[in-house]
Design a protein that fits this description.
The protein is globular, with a radius of gyration of 25 Å. Helices cover about 55% and strands about 5% of the residues. The protein folds into 2 domains: about 5-105, no CATH class; about 140-310, no CATH class. The relative contact order is 0.09. It has a two-stranded antiparallel sheet with strand order 1-2. The chain has helices spanning about 5-20, 20-40, 55-65, 70-80, 95-100, 130-140, 145-150, 155-175, 180-200, 205, 215-230, 255-265, 275-280, 285-295, 300-310; strands at about 80-85, 90. It is an all-alpha fold and about 300 residues long. It contains 15 helices and 2 strands.
């Protein structure tokens, strides 16, 4: 009979004890894990909420309340200018720290928080965590965001302003109608973005409501990004779960703005051909396509979609 190795024997005994006394062992392991993260960390000397020192639950709770900015102000008033808000995170209240922390090349890198934002396979300028790749994408995308590029789109933006004013005039001429100005300004902002990005409005102003619940979908997505971004590994079981693709109303590809971005890209294919040039527009998508044609290895088609879609 083959002799059992000491390591295997120890593991089997440990497993047996754990399964038998899991109700004692599990809380003990969690407590040990918490204490290790609280006291064995190089950040152990910084003050902050007790819960934040060993888990990310404080950040999850704070974001879920919807007023995390007030929570941060409160803990800085209580603990000082540098506060530990997670086992491996500090919050700074001094504005002078922003340049030191956020400037590229300082050794402070974006965390896995940004990986939750879609599309994960093609990060845009906001979600790209690799500094060298971020710089490449930023160089390509800088031109369409320039003042000169925006001025060329002025006529389209002015048409959208006129449409908004005509809608507000209708409310002004009928005192019995209630005008939710906040909603109409929201519709206006998205229709302007549609013109800037894809040379066409999303149709919110014309319809007078949130078409296909597109704005609500974005708001829900941002709430999800902010909350799950505090515990990014959960994203693999939630939105990145491949089962979502089999549930139509859960698949992100079915959202109005995502569909429009994909459809507009399809209309302009194949890039660089005469047919494509005839429909070429001086909008964000057109500029990004030109950037892709000039640097196909550094700025792929996926990057074109990601940056255009990310603008929304």
């Amino acid at each position: 009979m083959k002799e059992q190795s000491p390591t295997r024997a120890i593991l089997l005994n440990a497993y047996s004890i754990f399964t038998r006394y899991w109700y004692f062992a599990l809380p003990l392991l969690l407590t040990i894990h918490f204490l290790r993260r609280r006291y064995a960390s190089p950040l152990r000397h910084y003050p902050g909420p007790f819960l934040a020192s060993g888990t990310r639950l404080w950040k999850v709770w704070s974001v879920s309340t919807g007023h995390t900015e007030l929570d941060h102000i409160a803990i800085h008033r209580k603990y000082g200018p540098v506060v530990r808000i997670a086992p491996n995170e500090l919050s700074f209240s001094n504005p002078l720290a922003a340049k030191e922390v956020l400037t590229a090349g300082k050794g402070f890198y974006k965390t896995d928080f940004y990986g939750v934002f879609p599309p994960p396979e093609n990060p845009d300028i906001f979600t790209e965590v690799r500094e060298n790749v971020h710089a490449q994408k930023k160089r390509v995308a800088a031109h369409p965001y320039s003042m000169n590029a925006m001025q060329q789109l002025t006529p389209f933006i002015e048409d959208t302003i006129k449409l908004l004013m005509s809608k507000l005039d209708n409310f002004a001429s009928n005192p019995n109608q209630v005008c939710d100005l906040g909603a109409w300004l929201h519709f206006f902002a998205f229709d302007v973005l549609g013109e800037v990005a894809f040379s066409q409005k999303f149709g919110f102003l014309e319809a007078g409501f949130d078409v296909d619940n597109a704005i609500k979908t974005i708001d829900n997505s941002q709430w999800y990004n902010g909350l799950v971004g505090q515990v990014p590994f959960l994203d693999h079981f939630l939105r990145r779960n491949p089962l979502w693709n089999y549930i139509p109303f859960l698949s992100t590809k079915n959202a109005l703005i995502t569909r429009m971005a994909l459809d507009e890209m399809d209309k302009r294919r194949p890039f660089g051909t005469t047919a494509s040039k005839e429909t070429d527009r001086k909008d964000l998508l057109g500029s990004l396509i030109k950037g892709h044609e000039a640097n196909p290895d550094r700025f792929g088609e996926g990057d074109v979609f990601a940056v255009a879609h990310g603008a929304m």
